[in-house]
Design brief:
The complex is a heterodimer of chains A (about 450) and B (about 300). Chain A has about 450 residues and is an alpha/beta fold. Chain A has 20 helices and 8 strands. Classes of the chains: A alpha/beta (about 450), B alpha/beta (about 300).
């Protein structure tokens, strides 16, 4: 039904998406091919939506799908028809397009810009196209004031909405930058192996980004997923609670009641559950190396707080302090959280590097009463003690008092015990889990949280 | 019971469903006809609806509250001249609410009315169509008239119900043990909606075309506002949409949806505002934002307190 080239291209697109961890079956691929047959290849945007509808299963996959689609079904091939552009002329036209907010025109300008300013190298194999270089030469952000004046001149500064203009123009410039990046990827794909590029150069979905290597933008993106994730976990916890409430058979009372039916247990008696909500204590390493992970987990637990009778959160670097109050305060302002914790809590003594031994010892000593038989303790950190004493006695002490102790380590398991990591020692005393990204964290929290 | 097993409720046993002509001829046709009923579809929505019709697959629609997921099903039903069969999911919805139920009271009456009959006759009779109470899923696949089946807020239902949906959605058939398998003679157009409060199972997702309806772009939203609030001034509609766009870019607990945009536009119209003014915005911000923290934060970012 479809041309052979299209089928081949479609399957490699599916292959690239699978390499990004999406589960796409053969059935969906066949559906996608049918969609191509129904929609035809004339309108690229329709094709994009059609393939997205048949291949994807969730909204988070879309941001991976779009750049991969651009690589396999590019807007065009080769350089744009227009000749090499003059920088000032291009900037003039760019300013006009930004003022008019014309996306299609911006796309064409991005193509011209990459063609004119993005190329580097001359020898085949070492040459390529760089979006960074294009943007450095073109500097679209410097057009800001000019675009703003243009827009004001045409619309005549319409009162209230005028104050929104700055942000709108910034968003338009950002959109243009992304178009340049996509265009540069497309040009590179023509020279190199497209499959390789689709696997490596396209950023993965936010829930699979490593906490330890996530940049500022990715962390902000992650923070936005806290509320939906918390809602999902809450439903999962409620379901577990319902199942647990059905309970197990109380043998003694079943036998006792069976006496009335001549020793035949007609009705099993279930064990009664005392309706107690579990308590949670969080010990978070907030030193630079793992603060992204700790922040995210703290926000997640805070969002889940109504599932527990009591949640207490402690932060440490080499001294420990309670930050429960700060978290409640900052429900609306997530970005400033770590800065506020660092400003308002006493976390460091004489030096600024993390020391698990001293911090955990101080916790056992000062806040020992926070841990009781109903408490589940989560320790968050990479267990890198900077060569000081890990203070295993304190951990053992906490473990004896608490109902359960879990340690979530954002480092890959292979790195535990390398360098100054005391992970294996701690792992002998408490259950330690690898927790590198939001996906793993969600799965762990859903499984480990007490009900 | 052998006499009853092979009896199909619908007259054409064994015919493949999906014999009828497709609803739409092209993606543009979808947009145009949906627009005629007052539903302005983005290209993504139009394309997916077109494919759902052509491939005969159910459509799973996700997205924030108030972007028109349920409205889409209603609009499709109106365009197709079909009957809308709606299954509203909630925690605890079960087979007897979703599929079918035997009318026990009527069965008892029948048994006591026919005293002289043999048991075999009675049994065959009381498990017949007359005593079956059809619920939405069964209703949707029976009969020859076109239907749109809307399964609303699928994520609210328990996981067990998803298992129930699998048979209906992949083969468009329902098995009633006493009657046999009932297969659709005419496939309904199926729309499932979800607010993603729970992750739907992979098996269910695989059987559906997936559509995420996000917030519309500025141009489309302006057209929606103009359509739903006809009395509003063109320039004011543009300003309204721009303010809402700015609010959506902020890091708020609950960003305003299309429904809130329309509410706000109506409010402004009712207040008789012809341009957006500082005071009007400050007083009506509560229509757009539903949390006090959000109102404060947005007011600060929009410099509302400066005056």
């Amino acid at each position: 039904m479809t041309a052979p080239g299209v089928a081949e291209r479609l399957t490699s697109l599916v292959g690239a998406l699978r390499a990004h961890g999406m589960r796409i079956g053969t059935g969906e691929t066949v559906d996608a091919a049918q969609a191509v047959a129904e929609l035809g290849l004339t309108d690229r945007e329709l094709l994009r939506e059609g393939l997205a509808a048949t291949l994807l299963h969730g909204p988070a996959q879309r941001q991976v799908f779009d750049p991969v689609f651009d690589l396999y079904f590019p807007r065009g091939i080769g350089a744009p028809e227009t000749g090499p552009a003059d920088r000032d002329d291009l900037r003039d036209r760019l300013a006009a397009a930004l003022a008019a907010d014309d996306l299609a025109l911006l796309g064409r300008l991005a193509a011209e810009a990459v063609d004119g300013f993005g190329g580097y190298g001359t020898a085949p194999g070492s040459d390529g196209w760089s979006s960074y270089q294009t943007l450095e030469r073109l500097r679209p952000q410097t057009l800001f004031a000019r675009v703003r004046d243009d827009v004001r001149a045409t619309s005549g500064g319409s009162g209230f909405t005028d104050r929104l203009l700055d942000d709108e123009i910034r968003r338009r410039i950002e959109a243009f930058r992304q178009q340049v990046a996509a265009e540069a990827r497309r040009r590179v794909a023509e020279r190199r192996d497209r499959d390789q590029l689709a696997r490596r150069a396209v950023a993965t979905t936010p829930d699979r980004v490593d906490f330890l290597y996530a940049g500022k933008d990715r962390l902000a993106e992650l923070r936005r997923t806290v509320q939906p994730l918390a809602r999902k976990l809450a439903t999962r916890l409620a379901a577990r609670r319902r199942r647990a409430a059905r309970g197990s058979i109380d043998l003694r009372r079943t036998l006792r009641s069976s006496l009335s039916t001549g020793g035949v247990p007609m009705k099993p008696v279930l064990r009664r559950r005392r309706p107690v909500r579990p308590e949670l204590v969080l010990l978070c390493d907030v030193s630079g190396s793992v603060s992204g992970f700790s922040d995210f987990t703290m926000l997640l637990v805070q969002a889940l707080h109504d599932q527990f009778s009591k949640v207490r959160v402690f932060a440490f670097v080499n001294r420990i302090d309670e930050v429960t109050g700060l978290l409640e305060h900052g429900a609306a302002d997530a970005e400033g959280l770590s800065a506020r914790i660092r400003a308002e809590a006493t976390l460091t003594g004489w030096h600024g590097s993390s020391d698990y031994g001293v911090a955990l010892g101080e916790f056992a000593e000062r806040y020992g009463e926070a841990v009781g038989p109903r408490t589940t303790v989560f320790v968050l950190g990479d267990a890198r003690t900077n060569m000081s004493d890990p203070n295993l006695a304190a951990v053992r002490h906490i473990g004896e008092r608490a109902r359960r102790v879990y340690w979530l380590n954002p480092e890959p398991r292979a790195q535990w015990g390398t360098g100054d990591s005391a992970a294996p020692e701690y792992a002998e005393l408490v259950e330690m889990h690898e927790c590198r990204n939001a996906r793993q964290l969600g799965a762990l929290v859903g499984r480990l949280l007490p009900v | 019971m052998t006499g009853a097993v092979n009896k199909r409720l619908d007259s054409r046993p064994g015919t493949a469903a999906h014999l009828e002509a497709p609803l739409f001829t092209s993606v543009d046709d979808v947009s145009a006809r949906l627009a005629a009923t007052g539903y302005l579809a983005s290209p993504a929505v139009a394309t997916t609806v077109f494919l759902a019709d052509r491939l005969g697959k159910p459509l799973l629609v996700e997205g924030p509250a108030g972007v028109g997921k349920t409205e889409l099903a209603k609009a499709v039903a109106e365009v197709a001249g079909a009957r809308l069969v709606r299954l509203q999911c909630y925690e605890g919805v079960d087979e007897s609410r979703a599929l079918y139920e035997w009318n026990h009271a009527k069965q008892l009456l029948r048994i006591s009315a026919g005293r002289d009959e043999t048991w075999d006759e009675t049994r065959t009779d009381i498990f017949s169509e007359e005593f079956l109470l059809t619920r939405p899923l069964l209703t949707a696949i029976r009969g020859d008239e076109p239907k749109v089946l809307l399964i609303d807020e699928t994520d609210k239902a328990d996981v067990e119900v998803e298992g129930l949906l699998l048979e209906v959605l992949s083969d468009f058939q329902v098995t009633v043990p006493e009657l046999g398998t009932i297969t659709a003679t005419r496939r309904p157009f199926v729309v499932l909606t979800s607010n993603a409060s729970r992750e739907l199972s992979e098996a269910l997702r695989r059987r559906c075309l997936f559509l995420h309806i996000g917030f519309p772009d500025e141009e489309l939203e302006r057209r929606i506002v103009r359509l739903k609030v006809p009395g509003l001034d063109e320039a004011l509609a543009t300003s309204v949409v721009r303010v809402v766009g700015a609010l959506r870019a902020m890091d708020l607990r609950k960003v305003p949806s299309v429904a809130e945009t329309i509410d706000w536009a109506r409010t402004l119209l009712a207040l008789g505002a012809d341009t957006l003014q500082e005071t009007v915005v400050r007083e009506t911000l509560g229509v757009l934002l539903k949390h006090q923290d959000d109102v404060l934060k947005a007011a600060a970012k929009l410099d509302l307190d400066a005056v």
